[in-house]
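re: the backbone from monday

yeah here it is again, tokenized this time
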């Protein structure tokens, strides 16, 4: 089984981190970490995932590739959802989405790097299960 805490450890240490979730393609929560916020991260992640899928379908409708990420910046924070970039292993490619919430003063550039790496690692590991 995947040790999500280990895969997400670096992200939780980024300045401004508030919470995260790992979702499968349908929006089911596989992992949640919301110790630093009083909000329902699982619910927020599912709603964000639904919007992400709609935006991705729209991208396909106009002739572009599927959306790879969605970032919303507000006056006081960032909300991101990143689609996994794992390797394709035949039909066993495990698509996951990584949802994260950060304060506005957080290190967003570093968070994006860690998110991409964590999403790929999780997706690749799920494909091998």
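seq for it, each position gets an aa:
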């Amino acid at each position: 089984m995947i040790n999500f805490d280990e895969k997400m450890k670096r992200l939780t240490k980024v300045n401004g981190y508030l919470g995260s979730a790992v979702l499968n393609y349908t929006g089911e929560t596989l992992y949640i970490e919301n110790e630093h916020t009083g909000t329902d991260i699982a619910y927020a992640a599912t709603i964000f995932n639904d919007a992400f899928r709609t935006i991705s379908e729209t991208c396909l409708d106009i002739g572009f590739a599927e959306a790879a990420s969605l970032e919303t910046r507000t006056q006081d924070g960032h909300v991101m959802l990143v689609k996994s970039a794992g390797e394709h292993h035949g039909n066993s490619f495990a698509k996951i989405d990584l949802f994260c919430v950060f304060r506005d003063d957080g290190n967003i550039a570093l968070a994006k790097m860690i998110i991409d790496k964590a999403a790929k690692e999780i997706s690749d590991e799920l494909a091998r299960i």
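The CA atoms of residues 77 and 103 lie 4 Å apart. The radius of gyration is 14 Å.
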